[in-house]
Amino acid sequence: MKNQFKMKLKVFYLILAGYSLLTYSNEAAAQEEKEFNFSATLNSDQFFGFYPTFAGSYGFSDKASFTFYGILWSGGTGGGWGNWTEFGVGANFTATEGLDINPQIGILGGNLLSSGTAGPAVFGDGIVPNLTVNLNKAKTEGQLYFGYYAPLRDETFADGTTLAYIHYWVNFGFKASDFFSIGAHYEHLINSGGSNVATSTDVYQWLGPYVQFADPKGGPFARFSFGTDLVEGNDSFFKLTTGFSF
Q1: Chain centroid to CA 44
Q2: Cα–chain-centroid distance for residue 21?
Q3: β-sheet bridge partners, residue 193
């Protein structure tokens, strides 16, 4: 009888240990899922053409996370800029609920910045310090982006030039429902200089509305922006983006 009790006690301990291990594994998996996020987007506009992007983060706490991103400019106009490609890393900080600040720094491969597309495609074509501020509240949404594209190498020939650009945008919208939102988009690209550039010039300056449709549970979304180009000689702009979060 005593031996049977000991046997049952051992079985109970084994079951308890197995249950604890399973619970720990599920909690660890849930924590891992919470800490890592990844999204991919497909973009198209009349200046850059078609360019996929991706972004990911790994959280260290409720307020801070490591971030990384990539832009395959080579899918569109960047295909003629030495297969222009951008990759960067940074950190995201939650300032308050619904407001995130994400400074990052990227590096480019190609020949747009290092030689004005005239020279060879090289790694280290340029460097891109950038900042993104995201707003996501119950009824409002928005984003501010600023990036400075500076040449990191000089691969120019005689009478050639390196190039530098300032690229920024801001948008703000209202969530009419969990599915639909509407807002305004402003975006500006400036050729800010280079080794043989005398003055900065506006490449484009877009202003117009946007509409967005999104899965209320998170995941896929689609946004269409359109409107006028404020730069003299330009007519209008259109920009289509669809994205997926995993």
Answers
A1: 15
A2: 37
A3: 164
Spatial separation of the C-alpha atoms in residues 41 and 11, rounded to whole Å: 52
pLDDT at residue 169 greater than cutoff 60: yes
Give per-residue pLDDT as tens, 171-213. Answer: 999 999 999 999 999 999 999 999 999 899 999 999 999 999 9
| Contact present, 127 and 147 (Cβ < 8 Å) | no
CB under 8 Å to 42, separation ≥6 — which residues?
50, 52, 241, 242, 243
What is the per-residue burial (b if ≥16 Cβ within 10 Å, else e) of 173-203? bebeeeeebebebbbbbbbbbbeeeeeeeeb
Show the DSSP H helices in the chain as ranges: 2-35, 112-115
pLDDT in the model for residue 122? 98
Sign (positive/negative) of CA torsion 240, 222, 170, 186? positive
pLDDT tens profile 208-234: 999 999 999 888 999 999 999 999 999
Amino acid at 103: P
The answer to whether 60 touches 95, Cβ cutoff 8 Å, is no
Name the pLDDT band for 34 (thresholds 50, 70, 90).
Answer: low
Cα 150 to Cα 125: distance, rounded to the nearest angstrom: 9
pLDDT at 145 over 80: yes
* pTM for the model: 0.85
Question: What is the DSSP code string of 173-229?
Answer: EEESSSSEEEEEEEEEEEEEE-TT--S-EEEEEEEEEEEEEE-TTSS-EEEEEEEEE
CA distance 244 to 246: 7
Rounded Cα–Cα distance for residues 69 and 142 (Å) = 19
